[in-house]
Amino acid sequence: xxxxxxxxxxxxxxxxxxxxxxxxxxxxxERVTVTRGRKHxxxxxxxxxxxxxxxxxxxxxxxxxxxxxxxxxxxxxxxRLQIELEAIxxxxxxxxxxxxxxxxxIGARARVTKGPLLGIEGVVVEEARRTCLVLHVEILGRGxxxxxxxxxLEEIED
Length: 158
Description:
This protein has helices at about 10-20, 55-65, 80-95; strands at about 1-5, 25, 30-35, 40-45, 50-55, 70-75, 100, 110, 120-125, 130-135, 140-145, 155. The protein is of the alpha+beta class. The protein folds into two domains: about 1-75, NusG, N-terminal domain (Alpha-Beta Plaits); about 80-155, Roll (SH3 type barrels). The two termini are about 30 Å apart.
């Protein structure tokens, strides 16, 4: 299930799910902001307004009862969603700077051949003299982009 949460309530919903013993996923990225000349580091959700729940429909209804969740999306292929989220977590754990890619990427499909992301597949997007691999989360219609060296990629033939 994918929970669609109210604005800026992702961490509170994740905390509720953890306290209730419900398995969930909330990919977080570090952001640095500057306020009055001071740097502040914080962890923010990669996909704003979404928390991924690995549970039953009743668990989603329990989350809605908190008034922090507005709706949920049922996932037909939970295994595929899990693989997509694992790819994003591998990029985060590998020290890559991961950014939300707010739409479906159009480009050649590629697979990473070396390094911490070995075997991960995505869509290659060329942006302003940099190569990015976009890791889709199909149920959301968006993904996460990771800047990567072009020579670490091999094109996937369909």
